[in-house]
Amino acid sequence: MIKITFPDGSQREFEKGTTAYQVAESISPRLAADSLAAAVNGTTVDMTRPIEEDATIKFYKWDDAEGKHAFWHTSSHLLAEALEALYPGIKFGIGPAIENGFYYDVDSPVPITESDLPAIEKKMQELARNKEQVVRTEVSKADALKTFTEKNDQYKVELIRDLEDGTISFYTNGAFTDLCRGPHIPNTGLIKAVKLTSVAGAYWRGNEKNKMLTRVYGISFPKKSMLDEYLVLLEEAKKRDHRKLGKDLELFMFSQRVGQGLPMWLPKGAELRDRLERFLRQIQKQYGYSQVITPHIGNKDLYVTSGHYAKYGKDSFQPIHTPYEGEEYLLKPMNCPHHCEIYRSKPRSYKDLPVRLAEFGTVYRYEQSGELHGLTRVRGFTQDDAHLFVRPDQLLEEFEKVIDIVLYIFRTLKFDQFTAQVSLRDPNNKEKYIGTDENWEKAESAIIKAAADKGLKTTVVTGEAAFYGPKLDFMVKDALGRNWQLGTIQVDYNLPERFDLTYKGADDKLHRPIMIHRAPFGSMERFVAVLLEHTAGKFPLWLAPDQAVVLPISEKYNDYAAEVVEYLTQHDVRVQMDDRNEKIGRKIRDNELKRIPFLLIVGEKEQNERTVSLRVQGEGDKGSMTLDEFCNHVADLVKEETASRGKI
Length: 648
Known about the structure:
It is a single chain. This protein is 35% helix and 26% strand. Helix 14 links the parallel strand 22 and strand 23. With 648 residues, the chain is an alpha+beta fold. Helix 3 crosses helix 4.
């Protein structure tokens, strides 16, 4: 017999080899039917996996991330089964679950295009109705290699060669068998609705030197009604796509001649970004930050010292060689090494700490072309970066103050739903990181305590730490329910050691400061992209690039419209004029699409009375106002927005 411990602490005995499904069924048939996977001793496994020793157990349903992951992982195998039936000779790369759905990378004998997706969906639904059991088999490395060598699938053979004997498993559903760790749902019959969403190219193993495979994306649900709801959200997401809105609102652009992944901010976008920067600078000033500026390049030795070259050298732009033999520079991949050098530029006393250095610093990383996506994945981006150099007794207080800054920003911009993710190192893969176990344990403990002290809703994820320290990452849910990683705060004992940073303590001895890395926005590019999609381009009034537009109903009133623009500008209203030779209805429609909050229509009546006819974005006509009344109205609304933020 084995002893099973449940989440409430209660215990029951079962026969050795009992499955998680049987344990759930002994509690309730409904629990067994709804459970998609289980955590046994903290490891997520199939519901059909036998339990061979005393264990803790937790069941995952659809509403749990782990449940969705197992569901979508099985859906990717169902997709592969359908593809194998429809495209004889097809070869398979990898097919994981992702945050919203799944994909499979395939090498197809004939091209697969968007027009083929409905037929593939139909085949998936047909196979799902067979309620195929998903069966796990553990195999030796030799047998695994033999299986996929006979199938002439070089991709699976390559993956198997990297695995250790005794750790390899296959999963079979219907006629399809795949190399896979799992976990999976019990059978394909649970998949009631499928939608294949797109086809893209993806290099095998993410390496541009390898063959380009076809990536088929999809999503699935246990109920058709859930798919219907998702498709509505998908249509809304298309309307909110920041790449489309950025073009429509004239915020930013890309140019092949300038280079892939290198955004250029147009005047309105630059103004928007500048207001965000000024907003954060104002907060930082109240918290005692000092603004610095560092170069866009640095000597290669700087990044060798920091460890960034060893960790990111392959993913960075290639070194810049100067005319001086042996001299190499890199485009800056991180701001922190530069800030370390600023700190060590003069002796520091314990009385000087904390030292808080802030910079809107542009950094460069060579993302693969297939991974680039609008502003969310670029090769050049600006971080709202800061590095705090603190004494051990200041660490917790300073970390919590950074949390306060992040929460204030989220409150201001109406990011009301978020989770703080505690990102720890992988204890089974310590070679990925630098520093001692002792320093890592102290850093991780500080983050966990700070998050608890501030009452944050947290999740803990191992293996997601930076190479130099653990992180507190803020995962924000937008208006469409999608999660984005924005702000981050990190504790670092390691760079101060690598740069030999010190301060003289009260005991007259030299001590090592601790670094806090923080970026509340994350990067200006990614933050603006998420904000654009969250608001659908309807920014709060204090942030909007244009707060008003003046629309003369004909050319006769252009002079008065220009007077209105000048008057409003003098009274701090951001305004433009649409003096195109178009009908007023067309002007109204076009400027509504630009998400400008206030449309000010002027004609003979308004000119004679020195007024404007006010139309509010999305609300229609609001009657006439004098210019003073309108200026006061805008000022009052901005004050209300500012007051709603609360105190910093």
